[in-house]
Amino acid sequence: MSLLLPITSSARVSGPYTAGAGQKVFTFGFPVQRAEDVRVEWRATADDDWAALLLGTHYVVSGVGEPAGGSIAFFEARPTGSQILVLGRAAISAEVDALPANSIDSFALNRVLDRITMWVQELRRDVGTVQVEDAIEAAETAKFWALEAAGVGAPFLSITRADISSRIIPLASFVVAGLTSVGDLGHGAVYVAGGSGGPMAIQDAAGTWFQLATIARTVEPGHWGVRATGATDDTAALFTAWAFARANGYNIKLPNGTIVVASITAPLELETGMTVYGTGFGSIIKWIDTPSSPPMLIGRHWASSAVSDVTLRDFQVVGSHGDAGDYTSGNHYPILVYHADGVRITGVKVQKSRVFGITCRDCNKVEISGCVVRYGARDGINTADCNVVRITNNVVEFIDDDAIASHTSGTGNPDRQVVIANNTVRFAQGIKVLGAVSCSITGNVLEYCMAQGISVESTPISAGSEGRNASLSLVITGNLLNNIFDRAAVDGLSGSGRYLSIGADANQAGPLAAVPGENVTAGGTVISPFPYFANSANDSPTEAVPGSYAWVIADNVFMRDVPTGVSLSSLGRGTFYTRNGPVDIASISAAAVRRPGIWFLGGSEKGVSISGNVFMGIGNAIELADGAKLRDAVIAGNVGLDITSAIGISTGNGNGHGITCRGNLWDLDPFHAHANRAANGKWTATGSPVAYLIQNASGVSAQGDTFRNCCRISDYATAAAGGTTDRAEFIDCVIEAQPAALGFDTGNAGVGELPRAGPAFRYRIVDCDPASATWGNVISTCKVQATAIPTSGTYVAGAFVENANKAVAGGKVLMGWVRLTTGFAHVSGTDWSPVYCTVS
Question: Is the whole model's pTM more than 0.70, yes or no?
């Protein structure tokens, strides 16, 4: 801005005013260069649209060129109670020649640059985007340096601020070379003639007062006394600079270096439109937090009023957790933002927090992207009661609690539109989402996590509990989850170690006759769940809550690649970090790492699609706990290698499910490592591993699945029934084995217990002996159609080969041949029997 016409960060709007009886004059508080720069609008009532009035026809303007603004005067009084709005509306056209006669005219140059500033300020008011804010800053900065280059700006003096008091400075403004020494963080600060109460006010030797001027609406703490050497406490200077920025609507630019904050008594709060930014991770705030520290360092206090459009970017906060061996936890948040509409946190690094790293509460439109959070005693990134959340491209590692958490409180409307994508997580408790609706968890890489990889749950209902609503419309795709550990093996705490934990413990009938979505036997009706998907706002623990619906779990990888019997640190990947410090695992046990892949913890889940996932080296690929009830679920196209079971349902789960499995490949013991496995690929006794462990449940249908290297297909005897049981059905499934006899037989290789061939099971004969040179190769395929009785290959009793050349002969049609024995002999009447159809 120029000294002739100072232009502040005003939105260049005054009003709306409500006209009093006979009122003609209304003021405006922003400068204009000509009367045409003012636009006046009016409306009769608040319900009417605004209408423009005409200069010279309805009103005249006074105060042109005055820094404080001016007024408009109507020729006739406005109707009592009508509303008047005065806006700056500078025409986008050249008013003067910036370089008359190709010479520098400071007056003309000032007017041109001031007009540019007015244009951008009005554009910001009308559009209100971050890009416009940046454009204003760039315009004001360019204006200052243009004046400097033209020789009409503040001159640069080779003195520091500390030198001012010993010098007589006959200037209205000047730039210093440093704060106390040339080239320190005070370099470039602009001082202008002012008063004793101005920011950083100081007198020269002649008694003239000068004060710090801000350029481009940005406060640089180095100009306010922050040294950022890492050796001195910068608390007071930083707090003063921050308070000035808050009061004036300015941004804060953190310098490169380490700002020590050791004695802060109140948080550094954010205001509407405020941006705090640095030069990258080299801009460090070192927070030495103590029990007397405020609850947060940077953010917005829960008791403060709501704000909007706040930005934190490109700096680092380092706490004190672990310093000098002090691993005390606390409730002092490095970054905690409450009640904000529009939060953008990008390129920020947080380390050594005694509690959460980056936290947002009760916010709308939250973006946390490109951040790094390391070494924390609780969650790394945590959002709660926030809508429209994007947590993307972050690195979170060495965290005691959840690496990334998104929780809903359970009252009112649940969190919606949560996207957690492309994050990297290591040595933490993975990703946890409680009660989200319309949630996408996609493309994340999680390695060496404890307790959970990804957890999407609804929690047991109680007053004030988190995540007690139904989880609806969820997509969990394309994530890589490697090496999830049982937390008990890390530090003895509970937490299991599921790769993906999902469920709905929260569903309950409340005052209804049944859980919403379930049937009422007395009336023969089904209660619609739709009126109950959103929680009531009264925080009642007795309200009706439906189960969870509409989930897609696809194309994820659940894998263990660590060996057992070795220490975690010997793998060279690092060790776990807890609130009590680093923890190694002296010897990795199979129980610690063979954890369930997809674990349904309880409640009712309906409309679930599980497809295209790969499970390797873990426990059960899919596991249902006692209370889980899975209906309208399709499990299709998944691959399981070296797993305990394909589907494992706990003994306490007696529910009738609705699970359809299609086209899955289950290879339970591909490396012949199971204790029940003989050296030649056969099995020593009936028992584990079992592909489909149904136990006391029912309602599982396997259609077209392929089974390899398991002792039993199911824990229910399928040999005699040929795939039909009271608990599960098998249709057109493929078994890869070297059969010797039906049922369990120590001579059966590949699969130990063999059911009868038929519509339920087909066989592919595979070399299952690892001592064979053709191990894993297909020896023979069992024909399903031929023109004559097969003469080669191994078949299982019950197999049917259809006659490809059906014809009527002697009043009969030869339909095919049914297999009577299991083996490779092919004698008609002994091993095969023709099947005829009589033609009437």
Answer: yes
